[in-house]
């Protein structure tokens, strides 16, 4: 088994971090006690801050990969991971302190403690990184590498090794792929010290020639790293390694696949859906009465929509149109204000008087919180299309339904009434999918609230 980083070193880092956190709390208490006239009281009274924050710090630093191998990390990236981890730990610790209503809690000490702890963590990681570089520059721990390959992947590999000296890999020879490469490699492996063999090649060379090189390097007991240009023609997909039992493979995904993040997103959806349904229940009698008095027909409008990867589901809304709206849509198609497989009219004659107000205030969309609770939709996502719209999609449009649709999304908060071209809408959806994060979801939710408070907004779902 080949491991990039040592488990024992990671455990050692955790122990050092726990010591540094204790030291940061002690120094923060000492500093404030000396500065303040009355002091803060005995140090042991505030030791609960350590027991609450230490697990949060370690867990957050692990999550943001601040315990990953220093060899594959640049100083700025390493510092960013530590900063992100400490900020997350600070938020978690503050939440725990608030929920437990801890006594003897000093906000000033809490702030000073985390600032000192952050400085300690950054100094610790950067010092270790600098020490590793010094050791490598003296030739200790360096691994000698033979690189075989061609094309862009070879250039990228050589550039990476040159720009990241902390990796500890030194290229001793670069060999092009040719008919004589196998013989040349064997001569080199017999005469010179070689720790690793790197092979970078195109898909066209995935044949017996490369297979012979792999077998030869394995017979000589060398560590082999293979770089193949399977991803060069992919615009959005991220590459990951997976294993089904004993079968290794590669995953190319154009969206984030992180079970932890998906679990957090789902938890946020459920909480917000329950709140939304509670509000819906409160307003339901008044909205239902208004809809019934304005026009005949059901209170709730149900329509088939297309969700995650083509799954069909029934979307619910407060009815804002006359009951014959679907039939009249055919007559209005020539007046469609949108370009592409989507229909929209600013002054749609099918909308009732009450419906216009419900759309203006976005009250018509509140029943969709039931779709979110069921799992058909998310709070934030892409607009759920109708089946007839999907039938007119081009190939690249389908990527927008590779995630759950949402009640709100990037299009809705990006001036949706001004966007008339369907391709522009899809571009916004793909931008959301490519750059998705929990932070982006929270920003879209905040912007949605602002948009709802702006008068003159019209519905679009």
Write the topology of this structure:
Elements lengths: L6 H29 L12 H16 L11 H26 L6 H31 L5 E7 L1 H13 L5 E8 L4 H11 L4 E6 L6 H12 L3 E6 L9 E7 L2 E7 L5 H36 L5 E7 L5 E7 L6 H8 L20 H8 L7 H7 L3 E3 L6 H4 L15 E3 L13 H13 L3 H16 L8
Parallel strand pairs: 1-2, 1-3, 3-4, 9-10
Antiparallel strand pairs: 5-6, 7-8
Describe this structure in words.
- The chain is of the alpha/beta class and about 450 residues long.
- Helix 1 packs across helix 4.
- It has helices at about 5-35, 50-65, 75-100, 105-135, 150-165, 180-190, 210-220, 260-295, 325-330, 355-360, 370-375, 385-390, 420-435, 440-455, and strands spanning about 145-150, 170-175, 195-200, 225-230, 240-245, 245-255, 300-305, 310-320, 380, 405-410.
- Mean pLDDT is about 85; it is low at about 455-460.
- Strand 3, helix 7 (about 210-220) and strand 4 (about 225-230) form a beta-alpha-beta unit.
Task: Give me the Rg, rounded.
Answer: 30 Å
What is the beta-strand fraction?
A: 5-15%
Main sheet attributes: strand count, strand direction, barrel closure: 4 strands, parallel
Number of DSSP strand runs: 10
Determine the mean pLDDT.
Answer: 83
Helix residue percentage = 40-55%
| Alpha-carbon distance between the two ends | 53 Å
Counting DSSP H or I runs of 4 or more residues, the number of helices is 14
Strand order of the largest sheet: 2-1-3-4
Query: Looking at the structure, what is the overall shape?
Result: flat
Keyword list:
two-stranded antiparallel sheet, 14 helices, 461 residues, disordered C terminus, alpha/beta, 10 strands, 50% helix
């Amino acid at each position: 088994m080949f491991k990039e980083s040592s488990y024992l070193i990671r455990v050692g880092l955790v122990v050092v971090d726990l010591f540094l956190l204790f030291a940061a709390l002690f120094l923060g208490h000492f500093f404030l006690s000396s500065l303040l006239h009355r002091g803060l009281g005995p140090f042991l009274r505030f030791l609960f801050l350590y027991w609450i924050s230490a697990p949060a710090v370690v867990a957050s630093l692990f999550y943001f990969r601040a315990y990953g191998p220093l060899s594959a990390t640049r100083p700025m990236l390493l510092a960013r991971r530590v900063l992100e981890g400490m900020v997350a730990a600070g938020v978690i610790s503050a939440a725990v302190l608030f929920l437990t209503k801890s006594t003897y809690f000093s906000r000033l000490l809490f702030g000073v403690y985390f600032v000192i702890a952050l400085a300690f963590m950054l100094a610790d990681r950067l010092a270790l990184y600098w020490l590793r570089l010094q050791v490598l520059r003296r030739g200790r721990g360096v691994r000698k590498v033979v690189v075989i390959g061609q094309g862009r992947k070879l250039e990228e590999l050589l550039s990476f090794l040159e720009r990241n000296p902390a990796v500890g890999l030194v290229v001793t020879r670069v060999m092009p792929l040719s008919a004589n490469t196998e013989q040349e490699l064997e001569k080199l492996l017999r005469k010179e010290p070689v720790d690793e063999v790197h092979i970078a090649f195109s898909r066209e060379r995935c044949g017996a020639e490369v297979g012979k090189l792999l077998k030869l390097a394995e017979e000589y007991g060398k560590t082999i790293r293979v770089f193949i240009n399977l991803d060069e023609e992919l615009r959005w997909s991220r590459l990951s390694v997976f294993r089904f039992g004993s079968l290794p493979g590669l995953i190319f995904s154009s969206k984030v696949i992180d079970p932890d993040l998906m679990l957090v997103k789902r938890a946020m959806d459920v909480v917000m859906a329950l709140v939304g349904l509670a509000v819906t229940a409160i307003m339901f009698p008044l909205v239902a009465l208004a809809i019934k008095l304005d026009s005949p027909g059901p209170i709730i409008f149900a329509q088939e929509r297309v969700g995650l990867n083509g799954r069909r589901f029934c979307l619910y809304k407060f009815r804002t149109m006359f009951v014959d709206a679907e039939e009249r849509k055919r007559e209005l198609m020539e007046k469609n204000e949108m370009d592409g497989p989507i229909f929209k009219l600013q002054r749609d004659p099918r909308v009732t008087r009450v419906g216009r107000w419900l759309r203006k205030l976005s009250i018509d969309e509140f029943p969709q919180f039931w779709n979110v609770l069921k799992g058909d939709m998310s709070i934030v996502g892409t607009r759920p299309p109708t089946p007839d719209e999907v039938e007119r999609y081009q190939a690249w449009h389908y990527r927008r339904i590779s995630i759950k649709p949402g009640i709100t999304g990037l299009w809705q908060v990006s001036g949706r009434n001004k966007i008339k071209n369907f391709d522009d809408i899809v571009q916004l959806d793909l931008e959301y999918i490519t750059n998705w994060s929990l932070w982006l979801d929270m920003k879209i939710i905040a912007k949605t609230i602002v948009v709802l408070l702006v008068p003159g907004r019209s519905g679009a779902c």
